[in-house]
Design goal:
This protein has about 280 residues and is of the alpha+beta class. It has one domain: Glutaredoxin (3-Layer(aba) Sandwich), CATH 3.40.30. The protein contains 11 helices and 7 strands. The strands form 2 sheets. Strands 2-7-6-3-4 form a 5-stranded mixed sheet, with helices on both faces. Strands 1-5 form a two-stranded antiparallel ribbon. Helix 4 links the parallel strand 3 and strand 4. Helix 4 runs antiparallel to helix 6 and helix 5 crosses helix 9. The longest helix is centred in the first third of the chain and has 18 residues. The protein is globular. The termini are far apart.
Amino acid sequence: MKKLNRVAALAALAILGLFFAGCSKEEVSEPPTADTAVVAAETTAPEAETAESPAPASVPLEVVEESAAEAEPEDRAIVLAQADTATPPRTWQYKEGQNFTRLIPTQGTVGGADKIEVAEIFMYSCPHCYDLEGFINRWAESKDPNVRLVRIPAMFNQLAVLHGQLYYTEYYLTESGKLKDQIAFRNMVFEEFHRRGNRLTSEAAIQRLFVRAGVSEDDFQRTWSSFEVNQALRVAQDLARRYGVASVPMIVVNGKYRTDAGSAGSYPKLIELIDELTVREGLR
């Protein structure tokens, strides 16, 4: 009987691991459609990448090194609203090496040192990123004001490069006021890919989606091929390399802590872990 109980427990753990697994480089492949060849012909992989937040925010799209982010001796470290600086917590729920990994050395971030940065590395084609979307959006609505959320598209293949360009076009159109509701648009992209079978494998297919969202063809074209979008793609690719991104969705806190839902145990626990890691950074 004990042996059967052990077998059942092991099976349950295996199922849980599959449920919260991410999309790895090896697992992510081009959709088996004829349009994939068009993507390869029309798109050349940029050399880097960058990030954004769910609500429009002016985040400088350049890598900010940790050395430049360190406060001067007379400056105060960032303190989160929920952190009790008089009696800082000494017991943490989540453990380094088990629930998250420390990046050594600390890597650069997208924004400046004025806030603690939470970066979500994602792909529109990843079903796990789609599952995480609602959790991360709800967290962003009530996060500490000293915390900044940015998003960095991973580019494991040619389709992912195209979708990275889609993301930064979406980002800059939101910044300019041409795209009114970025969260609704992100949901539209996920729904197109995962629910309607529209793989968005060409610039023309992506343009039609923006037009549906109220963006003119001229505004789309100007942004799609802009210097800002190309630069953002280069920064994003560089940060993905620095962070050691091998699967998505992945969370990196302030260029220092890397984690995911599998390491945390579930999507709700991942949100708890994000909050705990930002508190750690606020107390440093």
